[in-house]
Design brief:
Pfam families: Xan_ur_permease
Number of helices: 22
GO molecular function: purine nucleobase transmembrane transporter activity
Number of strands: 4
Radius of gyration: 22 Å
Low-confidence stretches: 160-187
Order of helices and strands: HHHHEHHHHEHHEHHHHHHEHHHHHH
Mean pLDDT: 86
Keywords: Membrane, Transmembrane, Transmembrane helix, Transport
Membrane topology: Multi-pass membrane protein
Strand order of the largest sheet: 1-4
Helix content: 55-70%
Structural class: mainly alpha
Protein name: Xanthine/uracil/thiamine/ascorbate permease family protein
Shape: globular
Distance between the termini: 62 Å
């Protein structure tokens, strides 16, 4: 039965190989079930509810990938998108977490539509390759910066006059900045920490442990570092040792009930379209999230699927030149987009195809059976619910730093000798990290690219989609200035 359904012989693999590959990938990415709650809970969402939402989203998305696309990939909430969810949409734009979940659902819905039509390939082709690399590298820089801040390695000097003036400055989504959101969103002047706080010292220890594990190519390095750092934090007084027992499971399902379906509630999706300005902000934010997710998934597919033979040249040609979902890459993206829709409903940030799947592919995984095994692993991890509030942020922050570092290789694909490329690429990546906004980074890159190419009279290099999106970004900034 398994042989016939997953076409194991045709893909030159066996049940044993697929099971080992699935376990390998699960161990490599299981850290997300602890990292995601620690980041999203900063918005006010219950961490244990997010924990269960993360697992259910991963199980659903990964099963769709395995059973529908017959691919050995795993889906779970994206690290880049969890950062955008928390620091850009909630802290930066001032939306509630319910509204942010509404945006996640909307991204999934829009992505499903464009993935099943010619629009998808038009968008992929319309964005210059150099800007795609800059977006990926910028997200990495953004993630690493957040990791350094969450670890406590960077402090902020906040001028009292700045606090007073910023407290009266409205966000795009409404509301006013407070001292808490100001300091959590970057403050005014960064400075290096003094490393006297036990939590900061623990984060430093965790970072060293993780780096040593990663450079030594230890399987499951991220997950191992989380648990080892958490244990070290016990005698340091940083780790919360109150596990909670059975009550933790009860509260987990109760908290999940408080976030499930909020994306489609009166406080979620439908509460954002109250004015033309808010509609514009939502459109641009959804576009930025969808664009980042699309490039992320395609990058993972191309980076791991071509050399392994999972995606043939014919399959790639079918993806770029035809509509529908006949190719494996098409079906993989369909799974990714539906998973994001479910993520919004369950109560977590956008999903992505995890690059950690490469570990399972290296172990021989070639079919959807690998994904089914991964999904089972996530489902069984519900028993770890009591540990959610035990693991300190000092144990998860180093993951953000290292993941961000691994994305820096995108910078080498940018032609820095060509100023027409270097300027948009720089503003794309720099604005993402320094403005705490993936959307603003994409906006800066697009606008400068269009401006430079127009001055050089190279209009043929500017696609219609690039013109439209850049003008919308400019309009958004004008509305912000007038408001």
């Amino acid at each position: 039965m398994l042989e016939r359904f997953f076409k194991l012989s045709e893909n030159h693999t066996t049940v044993r190989t697929e099971v080992i590959a699935g376990i390998t990938t699960f161990v490599a990415m299981a850290y997300i079930i602890f990292l995601n709650p620690s980041v999203l809970s900063l918005t006010g969402m219950p961490s244990q509810g997010v924990f269960l939402a993360t697992i259910l989203t991963a199980v659903t998305g990964t099963l769709i990938t395995g059973l529908f696309a017959n691919l050995p990939y795993a889906l779970a909430p994206s690290i880049g998108m969890q950062a955008m969810f928390t620091y850009t949409i909630v802290f930066g734009l001032g939306y509630t977490w319910q509204q942010a979940l509404g945006m996640v659902f909307l991204v999934g819905l829009v992505d499903v539509i464009i993935t099943l039509t010619k629009v998808r390939s038009l968008i992929v082709k319309s964005i210059p390759a150099q800007l795609k690399h800059a977006i990926a590298a910028g997200i990495g820089l953004f993630i690493a910066y957040i990791g350094l801040k969450n670890a406590g390695f960077i402090n902020y000097l906040v001028n009292a006059e700045n606090i007073i003036s910023l407290n009266n400055t409205p966000f795009n989504g409404g509301g006013a900045k407070t001292i808490e959101t100001l300091t959590s969103n970057g403050g005014t002047t960064p400075e290096i920490a003094t490393f006297t706080d036990p939590s900061v010292i623990l984060a430093l220890i965790g970072l060293i442990i993780l780096v040593l594990l990663v450079v030594s190519n230890v399987p499951g390095a991220f997950l191992i570092s989380v648990f080892v750092t958490t244990l070290i934090g016990i005698p340091m007084g940083v780790t919360n040792t109150d596990i909670g027992g059975l009550s933790s499971f009860t509260s987990t399902f109760h908290d999940f009930g408080s976030i499930f379906g909020q994306a489609l509630g009166s406080d979620g999706l439908w509460s954002m379209f109250t004015s033309p300005k808010n509609i514009l902000v939502v459109i641009l934010t959804v576009f930025s999230m969808g664009l980042s997710g699309l490039f992320d998934a395609i990058g993972t597919f191309i980076g791991t699927g071509i050399t392994s033979g999972i995606f043939s040249k014919e399959d790639q040609r079918e993806f770029y030149e035809n509509k529908g979902f006949k190719s494996k890459m098409d079906r993989g993206l369909v799974a990714d987009t539906f998973a994001t829709m479910f993520a919004g409903i369950f109560g977590t940030s956008n999903t992505t195809t995890f690059i950690e799947a490469s570990a399972g592919i290296k172990a021989g995984g070639r079919t959807g059976l690998t994904s089914v095994v991964i999904a089972i692993g996530f489902l069984l991890s519900i028993i770890a619910a009591p540990l959610v509030n035990v693991i300190p942020s000092a144990a998860t922050a180093p993951i953000l730093v290292v993941v961000g570092i691994t994305m820096m290789n995108e910078f080498k694909a940018i032609d820095w000798e060509d100023v027409e490329v270097a300027i948009p690429a720089f503003f794309t990546s720099a604005f993402m990290a320094l403005s705490y906004s993936i959307s603003y980074g994409i906006a800066a890159g697009f606008i400068f690219y269009v401006l430079i190419k127009s001055v050089k009279r190279k209009f043929s290099e500017i696609s219609v989609i690039l013109w439209i999106v850049s003008l919308l970004f400019v309009l958004n900034f004008v509305v912000m200035a007038i408001d």
